[in-house]
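## tool: complex_structure
## caller: assistant
## args:
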Amino acid sequence: MMIQIRPDRFLQDLHTLRQFGAAGVGKGVVRPAYSDPDIAAREWLAERYADAGLKTRFDPVGSVWGLAKGQSLLIGSHSDSQPEGGWLDGALGVVCGLEIARAAMEAGGPAVSAVSFQDEEGRFGVTTGSRVWSGATDLKSADRLTDTQGLSFADARARMRHLAGDFVDYKRFTGFLEAHIEQGPWLYEAGEAVGVVTDIVGIRDMRITFEGEQNHAGTTPMHRRRDPLQAMARFQVLIAERFRNVVTPQTVWTTGHVDVHPGAHSIVPGRCTFSMQWRDGETERLKKMEEIIRDTAGEVAEDGGFSVSTSDLVGIEPVPMDARMQAALGDAAEDVAPGRWRRMQSGALHDAASVARLMPVAMLFVPSINGISHAFAEDTREEDLVTGLQVMAQAVERMSVALAA
Amino acid sequence: MMIQIRPDRFLQDLHTLRQFGAAGVGKGVVRPAYSDPDIAAREWLAERYADAGLKTRFDPVGSVWGLAKGQSLLIGSHSDSQPEGGWLDGALGVVCGLEIARAAMEAGGPAVSAVSFQDEEGRFGVTTGSRVWSGATDLKSADRLTDTQGLSFADARARMRHLAGDFVDYKRFTGFLEAHIEQGPWLYEAGEAVGVVTDIVGIRDMRITFEGEQNHAGTTPMHRRRDPLQAMARFQVLIAERFRNVVTPQTVWTTGHVDVHPGAHSIVPGRCTFSMQWRDGETERLKKMEEIIRDTAGEVAEDGGFSVSTSDLVGIEPVPMDARMQAALGDAAEDVAPGRWRRMQSGALHDAASVARLMPVAMLFVPSINGISHAFAEDTREEDLVTGLQVMAQAVERMSVALAA
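## result:
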């Protein structure tokens, strides 16, 4: 048996999928979880699974499955998009799963199932569909999640109730494989075709609040001020210096949200709340960074007479990829694209991180042009898409041997 | 003739005035321009002017006047408050004007008129009532101003149409005197009773925008980021250093408003817009600070690959107080509170700055406990209020001689 993937059919399906919720701007899509285009895309996908000879299933949260008989490898990702998203984020992994399951069926084996998880992009939570399926979040808790408009997850998933069957028993799968665009610049800048993911980085996320003294911007002399925006600015500059000896080139940290109260030109602010998020592949480093953050915030507060408080720390642990599956992907990459691949971390969270609770998982990346993602401009050269598919297909044969061993 | 002010009557009127819109929290008031409590307070004030023997007038924007016969000195301030204001901000100067005009009338001279300007606190503009009266803003432009709820100045002032007469001819006044709480900490910290204002500082105000590149907070390495929030933080730290050799202890600068776009924990911001306001008594220094601000913003932008843009610069020039009136206030202060007064700048804008377009003006400050203002907690010891009134009353006699000379 030898899987014969068909690049033309694969690309055709990818382009068909992007018509669901096409933004009308480049190849961009607007296909958030449970929107009409998202549901229509999932129904189209179920038909493709059925055409391929797979048994189709929608689970209670709207993830759609194409199931091979007996024990099988599972391949997939998600077909919901960001509010303003690209055509490949999630869709690539879903159509890779479809094509490889289809080609494997045509070849008479190995057994490959396919999936498109629901709400990976976090309209309600984060990787909601795969977290509920894997038990990371229970359905009752998930049902209480709301989107930014106040719609509950329970009401959203009720939109697909007419399609819903039971949850799929995870014991039928031997492992999970997810192809994804890198969403960063490393492969593209290096002119490489494939990344074999070593681990999905851990994330720490919290809010920090400096409180000072709200005052008149004309009559309060500088030496009397306790301006928490200045505390935030100093904190940012200090942690950048202090992280220098702790981080790797892959470590990142971000303040993406800032609230300055009361927010008027003529009032010295009384309060500044801001988000602080950091990501790294090692729990130890995440912990060290947390120490630096807390120490620096405390020091800035003490120096300037501020009070400082922090929200609960939200933590997602780093998830290592299965060694045997990584090896299979690496061997296939060296065969298909010799010298044009690397092992690398995933800085973004993916469904594979949820599924890792249940079974061995691995991921493969293809380059993102200019590192752009979560935007209509997101794109990848078609030859790179096909190379990724070929590497994965070849790895599937290697893995089906390795995992059976 | 000798003006005999009556401290008891003065304090009684101040406490009566704070019942209009009493917040129910300490001595706080909620009496924004054109609110029911504001209009009721102005009607009460008109009755007090009439009781004192002054001719009352509401002008077309709702400023209320108590007019002495013939040429007179004008004394007053404003009786509208901040949305959450104190009992003395404006009210002190208004009741000083009432008491001195009343006492002068009882003494048979000198001729003193009184005024409470409308909307000093800027529900619609800034010092709107006195700016319209002085010609700094024409009524047609003012009518198009709106409050934060979208109500127009035209519709707001229509609420007082049944009271409105003509504008008062400014030529009947020989000068304008305004008593006010300091709203800052200098007098209180020094244990002094009176400040004689030398000038009202100039203000420069603009918005600065750094634009970088919006990106995924997990997949974009630090060396590839152009994060405009980091640019803003660096800018704040740099200008604080660079201003050091340029500013005086009275110079102030403030960033009170910050907008980080799109404002999500997991997205490296693409844009950061923030307000930059600075105040000083000297036009030259304001200009030098503007240079430093523009140079530093440009330098930060160039270093980090940002684009930087600025809004139009809003400028209010410094307003010097009349030398003869200052001298009269200083002599009176030395007589009433020897060694317990100082000359000082006003870091806040006041109606006197508008009126200075028309006639000589001067201002007197009394201490603010802990420098607090624009808050329910704003307060001043009653003995300091009375000392301020006494200094002003004595100065009025000196001035009426000086200005007639």
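## assistant note: Chain B touches chain A through 59 residues (CB under 8 Å). Chain B has twelve helices and 17 strands. Handing back to user.
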